[in-house]
Amino acid sequence: MILRGTHYENEIAKALDIPMYSAKPKDQVHGSKAGSRALFQLLNIPCADGTFSGCSQIEDLIQEILSVIKRNPLAEKGVVKLLDGFSGKGNAIVDLSNIQNAIALNESSAVLSEIMLHSLKEMEFCCQGRSWADFSAEISKMGAIFELYVANGTSSPSVQVVVNEDFTISVLSTHEQILDGQIYEGCAFPADKSYRTELIKYGRQVGEFFAANGIIDHFSVEFVCVKEKLYAIEINLRITGTTHPFMALKLLTDGKTDQDTGIYYTNAKTEKYYVASDNISHPTLKNMLPMDIKDIFAAQKFHWCSIRQTGVVCHLLGCMAEHGKIGITSIANSPHEAQEQFDQVVAYLTSLS
């Protein structure tokens, strides 16, 4: 399994005459922001209005944005996304109020371009420390797309799928993503039942396209939900932050996900749920060793119990010394129990002194 296959992995796979469990470089366009939106359009998967190809010239991007805004006179915000942005850190939110007013006043094309450029320079960057100078340089380097901001989103679910070596499709999981603004922080498994089967349907649609085009890989499709209506946001054509908690569950319990309902069952037919995060942070963690965490979890009875097949497992222990953070996955027999157990662990770890 490869995070993202390059020419080198592709050549090794050819030399060994084995399949590469990753999209080939030529196919990775489908996992870019523009490629995702183009595929949603092709497959009739609902998504917000916006551009469907990347722009690396600021003036070209401005003209594309103006075309979208003129189709949507009530739009208040938009999102500019770097084509290869990661975990929401390549996103920036732009206020459209000034440009909408200028359009309503029938200002000239030159004035509209100038106002739009000013709005871009004043964007709210989702990654701390970003500025227009470095963001615009990244646009020139990798390109960007624009889409309307989906307002009043109540949740950010996703579906994870794998196209197998024989080109069959397996739905691994659905999740509710835990976000800080647009930055990924963690997830809860599975997604809400009110739209879970719809997530599975859309995930299969994308998987069928990949299989028909000879693409073998893990991927996820991310959405925003507004009043139980799903809007597709992007495709991650790779393993993601939701992959490792699910694989931890599978390796610990040896079960599988029902392909119709999205519920995970152990071999004993017990349902399992979890809440996971990569970002449990506290300064005290910098002074601790992995064995200290193990001892704390055992003493507080947070640890994984192989008999009950419930408890909390850690990852990213190597990040403690430098960054003062770890990741945890809280596994239980109900969503409530998984969340309660997760909250107890976070409260304890962040109270250490």
TrEMBL record:
Specify the IQCH-like ATP-grasp domain's residue ranges. Answer: 28-258
Could you give a GO molecular-function term held by this entry? metal ion binding
Could you name the domain of life of the organism this protein comes from? Eukaryota
Query: What organism does this protein naturally occur in?
Result: Ditylum brightwellii
Q: Which Pfam families match?
A: ATP-grasp_IQCH, PGM1_C
| Ranges where the PGM1 C-terminal domain occurs | 308-341
This protein is called Uncharacterized protein
